[in-house]
């Protein structure tokens, strides 16, 4: 079983597609760094302001971003089925997560520094200047935690975090979802039990359920409740 299949099994049981990238694979000629994260479900005004503030910032330096581009494509390369992690906009997703969840930052930035230090020690050049073979020699030291040496612990923690974020970013992009073949629960999207299943068991939805719970045109509205906990209908 290859890396992509392993990641698909890992991710299928653990994520909800809360974040979606604007596109699956980057259209020809478009810089993936120009892609933005968008939410396809209702947001409060406070959440919108929070998101707008985060989108005005960046976390990675240009030097770090080049490393991230290389690393995510090592984790999920392009294959005959779908595009690579960079083509799916995963580096943008990871940059966003660094800003949205600052606890990730120390492990991420420290890990990139660790990687460059090992590259300088081993090959007298930074990671981005190394050949593919040289890069993989370093990555193999930290990609398998059970086999890693104690002195490589920082690198292992970094690569674990990066691998998790890469898989989450890729398999919640449009192309990644198509590759995965399973969407699972998505915010504000529940269309009920499929009609063919209801018919098979001789069941159907009552009028109130259809009116209150399954109105697609209202799925992105923010709900209002009265003092007694009853939904206020507009």
Number of helices: 10
General shape: elongated
List the uncertain runs: 11-24, 31-35
- Provide the domain count: 2
Number of strands: 2
User: Which structural category do the helix and sheet elements fall into?
Assistant: mainly alpha
Mean pLDDT: 81
Q: Provide the β-strand percentage band.
A: under 5%
Helix content bin: 40-55%
What strand line-up does the widest sheet have?
1-2
Work out the radius of gyration. 22 Å
**First and last CA, distance:** 52 Å
Main sheet attributes: strand count, strand direction, barrel closure: 2 strands, antiparallel
The H-and-E topology, N to C, reads as HEEHHHHHHHHH
Structure description:
This protein is an all-alpha fold and 234 residues long. The protein folds into two domains: 3-180, no CATH class; 190-234, no CATH class. It is built from ten helices and two strands; from the N terminus they run αββααααααααα. The protein has helices at 3-12, 45-55, 62-75, 90-100, 105-123, 132-142, 153-170, 174-180, 195-200, 207-212; strands at residues 20-21, 37-38. It has a two-stranded antiparallel ribbon with strand order 1-2.
């Amino acid at each position: 079983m290859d890396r992509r299949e392993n990641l698909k099994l890992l991710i299928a049981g653990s994520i909800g597609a809360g974040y979606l990238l604007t596109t699956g694979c980057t259209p020809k000629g478009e810089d993936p760094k120009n892609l933005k994260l968008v939410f396809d479900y209702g947001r409060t005004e406070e959440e919108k302001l929070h998101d707008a503030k985060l989108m005005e910032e960046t976390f990675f330096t240009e030097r770090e971003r080049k490393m991230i581009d290389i690393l995510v494509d090592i984790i999920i390369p392009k294959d005959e089925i779908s595009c690579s992690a960079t083509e799916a906009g995963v580096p943008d997703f990871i940059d966003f997560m660094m800003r949205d969840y600052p606890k990730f930052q120390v492990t991420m930035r420290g890990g990139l520094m660790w990687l460059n230090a090992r590259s300088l020690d081993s090959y007298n050049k930074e990671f981005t200047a190394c050949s593919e073979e040289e890069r993989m020699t370093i990555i193999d030291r930290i990609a398998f935690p059970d086999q890693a040496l104690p002195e490589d612990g920082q690198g292992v923690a970094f690569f674990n975090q990066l691998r998790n974020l890469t898989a989450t970013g890729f398999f919640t992009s449009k192309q990644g979802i198509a590759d995965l073949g399973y969407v699972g629960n998505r915010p504000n999207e529940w269309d009920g039990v499929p009609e063919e299943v209801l018919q098979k068991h001789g069941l159907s939805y009552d009028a109130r359920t259809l009116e209150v719970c399954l109105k697609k045109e209202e799925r992105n509205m923010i709900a209002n409740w009265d003092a007694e906990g009853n939904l206020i209908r507009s």
